Amino acid sequence: MKYQGIIFDLDGVICSTDEYHYQAWKTLADQLGIPFDRERNNLLRGVSRMESLKIILEKSERTYSEQEKQAFAEQKNALYRTLLRQMSPADLSDEVRETLQFFRDCGLRLAVGSSSKNTPFILERIGLGDFFDAVADGNCITHSKPHPEVFLKAAEMLGLPPERCLVVEDAHAGVEAAVAGGFDCASMGDAKDDARAKWHVNRFSGLRGCL
Ligand code: B16
Ligand code: MG
């Protein structure tokens, strides 16, 4: 088997917190009178919180101080975390749970590679707090996707070189990060047709065909 490990993006791959991100950013954008819709929300996939805010504020007619930007990001995150509290193990689909177990039974080492600083909280909510062999997230990196740092960190934590790991992503920024780090990438969801990915899957269970 070519791969000895798999590194999964979190939002949009393991679970769907993308809708909560959208609702929280939409509330902030409406309050500031900035146009924001689901199409624009797609640009925020995989990028950090402050980068996301920067993209939203590009459509603003005025500029904001660093202090105001920090306050906006904190406000968004507080609302986002309130929404995340609704999540429970029922938000992890049977398909994802069974496919993860299949990979584990194959002897693969499994990791999360996410830009989100809320990763530990989300994994806890969906009942995967202790499941992964390694978790690299927004709390342990200085460069967000499309920089490869988070995936390189995850591979290092797994004790594997990039060429032995498959990265699974739903964001173009994430596919770019994986390729830049020397990983094969399986893309799905919003990034499914990204030509830089080696594999293109319609659904999570389709990842079994990448081994
Ligand atoms: P937070 P992923 C990313 O997670 C999200 O896709 C992206 O929309 C979000 O801005 C980023 O996490 C930071 O999240 O505000 O929770 O730190 O897709 O890399 O798992
Ligand atoms: Mg994602």
Describe this protein's structure.
With 211 residues, the chain is of the alpha/beta class. The mean pLDDT is 97. It has a 6-stranded parallel sheet with strand order 3-2-1-4-5-6, sandwiched between helices. The site of magnesium ion has 9 residues, from loops.
List the helices and strands and how they pair.
Blueprint: E1 5-8, H1 18-32, H2 38-41, H3 49-57, H4 66-84, H5 94-105, E2 109-113, H6 119-125, E3 134-136, H7 149-158, E4 165-169, H8 172-180, E5 184-187, E6 199-200
Parallel strand pairs: 1-2, 1-4, 2-3, 4-5, 5-6
Helix pairs in contact: 1-4
The structure holds 1,6-di-O-phosphono-beta-D-glucopyranose and magnesium ion.
Distance between the termini: 7 Å
Q: What's the gyration radius in Å?
A: 17 Å
Overall body shape: globular
What is bound: which ligands?
Answer: 1,6-di-O-phosphono-beta-D-glucopyranose, magnesium ion
Largest sheet: 6 strands, parallel
- Annotation field: number of helices: 8
| Helicity range | 40-55%
Q: Give a count of the beta strands, DSSP E runs of length 2 or more.
A: 6
Please state the structural category: alpha/beta
Question: What is the gist of this entry?
Answer:
By secondary structure, the chain is α/β, with parallel strands linked by helices. 40% of the residues lie in helices and 11% in strands.
What descriptive keywords fit this protein?
single chain; 211 residues; alpha/beta; 8 helices; 40% helix; binds 1,6-di-O-phosphono-beta-D-glucopyranose; binds magnesium ion
